[in-house]
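Q: What would this chain look like folded?
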Amino acid sequence: MPLRLDVKRKLSVRSDRVKCVDIHPNEPWILVTLYNGHAHIYNHDTQQLIKTFEICDVPVRAGKFIVRKNWAVTASDDMLIRVYNYNTLERLHQFEAHSDYIRSVVVHPTQSYILTSSDDMTIKLWDWDAKWALKQTFEGHIHYVMQIAINPKDNNTFASASLDRTVKVWQLGSTQPNFTLEGHEKGVNCVDYYSGGDKPYLVSGGDDRLVKIWDYQNKTCVQTLEGHSQNVGCVAFHPELPIVLSGSEDGTVKLWHSNTYRLESTLNYGLERCWAISCLKGSNNVALGYDEGTMMIKLGREEPAMSMDASTGKIVWAKHCEIQQVNLKQLSSDQQLKDGEKVPLNVKEMGSCEIYPQTLSHSPNGRFVVVCGDGEYIIYTAMTLRNKSYGSAMEFVWSQDSSEYAIRDGNMVKIFKNFKEKKTFKPEAGAEGIFGGSLLGVRSYSGLTFYDWETTSLIRRIEIVPKIIYWSQNGELACIATEESYYILRYNPQAVAAAVSNKDLISEDGIEDAFDALSEIPEIVKTGIWVGDCFIYTNSLNRINYYVGGEIVTISHLDRVMYLLGYVSNENRLYLGDKEMSIVSFELSLSVLEYQTAVMRKDFETADQVLPTVPKEERTRVAHFLEKQGYRQQALAVTMDNEHKFDLALQLGNLQICYDLAVEMENEQKWVQLSDVATKRGDFKLVQECLTRAQSFGSLILLASASSDKQLMSTIGDQSRKNGQFNIAFLSNFVLGNLEQCLDILIENQRLPEAAFFCRTYLPSQIGRIVGLWRDKLKQMNMERAAQALANPTDYENLFPGLVNTYKTEQYLKQTTQQQSANNYQSIIPNWERNPIEEMQEAENSEQFFYGPVQSNNDTVETDDNEHSSNIKDTSKQTISPEIKQTSAASPPPAKTNKPTTDLPVVNKLIPPVIASTSSSSDRSRSQSPMNNLVNSTTKSATPSPPPLNKTTPPPPTTTTTVTSSAISKATSDKPATTTARKTSLSDLEKELQEFDIEDDVSDVENAQTTGVNKRFTDEDEDLQFDDDDVDEFLKDT
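A: My prediction, written as structure tokens:
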């Protein structure tokens, strides 16, 4: 029977004539050198051109990857060797290697050497570590040296093919060839070594259209392969398959069996002459170079022929035609296996197989091993590899019963029982593949069909195209893996039995209730096994996962492609193998799988018995599985992870467990989560504690507002301020009406502009102090002009209409604001409907409120004004004159005469105060607010000071006070320093006004309409001097 090899096309690109191809061992790349002087690198996975080298204008006949250095080396007809970094495309080096066309380049597998052959009939050895020094020249051929190949079993020897009709074998370090192989009738174009360990062979092809197999130990020709109709340009032994490939100028690539030398297949892709073949160890991929492009094909399957009997721990594999075995029970008990590390095993040679094994599998009971390949199958005993049965078959599958199996031969399916043919049938839709297990599965063009092993009757037809089917040990669960996903089905033998007795339950597609679809998982299964109700598999991302009850758990990530072999339950280890027959293992607790299986079967009694055997480190994973199955209460009892336990308790509403865990973990997020659940439960005491521990002051403000908890709001303000959450602190104090605290918070954070506007709205009495701080801050920032441009409302009242009323309203609100009971909500006027200034005026007119001016805070920030401080000290013993006191104590004046001057029409100019200031700068003058007017008018009096005014004393008329203070100031200002200070102040003000492009003179500003409170100033009278007679007369009048 011929060798059955599937040939899949992976890459097909058109290009100029290809002279050489090479496959990268680690990346999905092919290096292609062209006759037009260029070189390309293609990605054979994406079929994209990813890199291009424009090397020269003459043919590039050879190119190779040097993976150790990330290099690509090329040889061309300009006799130059060029070296490129294939990542950056940078040319690193070039040198002239030969005196004629360079035909071939090979890279030494271990040392820093390359070998080149040329039409100058020489072979040269170059060392890149020695700056590409020429180490040796091999001479002996008398014609062009077309190709060279290094022996994979002995890296110090290599063979060369020449047009002098010979193949020579050389030794590094020797100038003469070891021997010469003669037999071709014409020139030899190509040569390659057999990489297997069993045969010392090499192959050559020549212009005589022949392919010859040589034994280089006996120096004889073993076989001559005839079949090509033109010159043979390239040959290769496949490193993984028993295949010899030959490419010819007749446009074909022929595949020959390396054992029988039969012609197995001929490939013709219509790309004209074939010039190059490249294979890669460990891969079934083959690259082909033609006149019109490049092809990449995949022969057979890369999955190794390996099988494991989990009951005995024996692993059997086929290495080429040799059957080998390892026994896991040989491992000593003191050997600690680590996950992912290679298992140290002794390989036992079982013997040679008469056919090339493509698949190998144990029977369910482990007694037999079947090998399938070359269109035949052989059943061996597992112990001694004794031939038990054989026959022709394209596929072989075992039933759940080890005595029963089936084979596919074309479209016919044959079932055997105890090695004797029992039944043969031909499926209606044909047979493209068969699958074993509890039912016999047949894949056809229309989908998948399940048949009964005994009767071959139709069980169910499913419209999916499976790649492979895995059955659980008890035959209840099946995994159907396709090219894009896999399906988990549950088989119902009861429904099948019922349908057998009742034919009405059987439809055209079989028994509908035969299977229940449990899950569809969008993952590509490479290999898989069932352990209980858990399906363990490797996927296309090189991960080991297992599926149980709809949950997918990742066991490990793999660094290469590996294939599942089996699970040894008494060791709790999962075993895998790779293409190199290396065995690795991973720990997987059987008790966990048993527990999950019992839960899936709803056998909770068994699950409770298994649970104590589950390791503590695995219990959290089991708890996650229980949670996904909907068993949260059980998951809460099983889990060992506090985070998971908290989440479960939260879902179950067990606030006490949540509280205990939150106290233990001291996690802010946990307290917030618990507060949310407690809020829904209405447990506000717990809510407050949770939010307090979480320092979630924003939520606490909401709670305090909703519950009218003044104490809590005050605590929030204090704690948030200590923690630096000033926005929360400001808001809480504002809600409580602690305006002074709000102002302090703004000052503390250097938010002086906001503080000034806050004072303007809520605390007018603090405006002077805050504006002073604002000015100082600007001066510290070297913004003197901006500081001078700030108008202090206490200095320039005429720019701030109604300022005096705001002073009064502030005092009025302090006197009248009181805490109200919630019962009065309906009767209390909302704040947005109130007008506090009108309320104050009404209270003042009805004598229910008397304004008591207090000293402004403006002076408290003027600490650098020594003269001002001394004035305060000197005048502290002075008192208000009896006349003023008497006037102030009189009955309240009429409403019309009691209004401050700022209520009158004003000119939009900066009007300085009338009272002469002793300050050294204009921005440090005293406030002219009603609160300061009384102070100014009393500082010059010599009479004893009366007791301080209380809040109920009605204020004196503003006009009288202002005039009196002005007159007293003038009468007592005998020193010329006062006049000088005033002149200086006005001079500074004029400069400021000029800088701000205010055209009007200061004298024009002061000539604005007033009520007699301020005196008029002219340009001729800038010194503000009064006649003594006028002062005396004024004092008498007052």
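Residues 856-1028 have pLDDT under 50 and may be disordered.
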